[in-house]
User: Fold these one by one.
Assistant:
Number 1:
Amino acid sequence: MIVSFKPTGAADPRRAEFNMLEQLLDARIQSGADLAEIANARVDVTVIDRLSERGLKLDELSFIIPRRTLTHRRQHHERLSTDESDKAIRLAKILAQAMSIFGDPDKAMAWLRNDHARFGGKSALDMASTEHGARLVEEALVQIDEGYFA
């Protein structure tokens, strides 16, 4: 799925998703290429805090970075690795997309946490731990947004 992150104005239905993604990553994003640059520059560990503030539990974030490693990074004022940054960005995109589509944080989190037959009985959050799984989650969210039952 190709997603343009370039804002087109207040009438754009993806504006809320875009704004949330910028807030979660604490970065200005003009295009999808910016996300790759952000990952390569390595995001600050505070992205974990911002994801948690939006309703994700620490055990749901552990695929990004183990708790001990996170504690170590905080103590030494280190940023996430490129791989960890990439995972955090992937999850932030899915979270922003779900919240935008469902329009309600509780509904979005319920959908992300519930098991789905289309994901082999796994939750969207479980699927989001891999790149291929995340793509399936994004596709499902697009189908929901377009009116398909998922």
Number 2:
Amino acid sequence: MQVDDCYQLGYVIKPHGLNGELQFLLDVDSPQEYSALESVFVLQGQQLVPFFIESIAVRGNKAIVALEEVESVDEAWALKGAELYLPLAVLPELPDDQYYYHDLVGFALEKESGELIGEIQSVLDAGAQDLLQVKHTSGKEVLVPLTDELIVKVDKTGRKLIMNLPEGLIEVYLNEES
């Protein structure tokens, strides 16, 4: 299993107790949906390592988890800060009018007028708002705010995102002096 085949579930906050249990932060919209989780991939170095879950108790966006083969506080401390992943295949299918951010990668970004801006390379978490990293048709990188107010249509079948972009936004990146 590769990271590209997965989505990040969250990360290990710290050990919990003395028997190797861990506290997870579940960075997802509905943490309760993961209360019956049977396994998780933990990123160790550059590799995803699978762990089976013995028990999990979800409270809010945190969970207390006992993993098989993690039986001491020392083993638990070794996992502190590790990123947690699940395969993309386990994500529920969304209705046509909804999408996951990772679905947008590879989509064409177009203005409402039909003008092609470029190809979406990734979705970046910039804190206050998410950004689309786009390879412009000129070859330059362009960053576009990903907000509901700017989205006109997400065409999953045609693999394109149509947006009503503010005047001059793209030109800022294309200006030679920038």
Number 3:
Amino acid sequence: MVKDKGSFFISGRRTYADLFLQLDETYKGTNLYFYDLNAKANYRISEKDVLFLSGYFGRDNLGLDGLFGLDWGNATGTLRWNHFVNS
């Protein structure tokens, strides 16, 4: 982004238990993973105005070879504007 005006970052993570479970014949067809993603950005519009944007997305998945399964997640986003009235 523009130097001294804005910045951003993105982060994410994931479990890899499902990859290791596939190595054992007993657990073939098992789903087991969780992941999420975060993103944030800010931008200084003027000396007194700053805009912030952030978001989150996450998903959890657990299933055992068609016997049962859980699949849920969350997503959210936020837009914020800060205005400084005086110094």
Number 4:
Amino acid sequence: HPVSAGCQTSASNVWPDPRLGPELAFDDDPKTRWGGAPDSKDGWLAIELAEPKTFSRVRISEAYDRIQRFEIQVQHDGKWRTIHAGTTVGGNFSATFDPVTAQHVRLNILEATDVPTIWEVQLLAE
């Protein structure tokens, strides 16, 4: 079960109409999605957990296969630290890493072929 349910979300920017807000990428609903601003080719999607949680896996479902380069990052003492870096994401991406405890986590999209849009991000304890 994701550790991310019911938390605060934010994004670098949001597709305006219909509004595809960051909360839609963390709602456990595979039919809703976050979208970046029109003409954007990068951006980030962040979550603030209710309290620090430990997780060692991330699952991401991306619409339209646009991401070319990304990082999963956690924040400690106000600084972002990359715990996983990758290239393409696609509809069923999963990565496992050493367990990390954090309250602030973000998907930092460094490069995309078109507006990035994400169906779902899940942080998992195992």
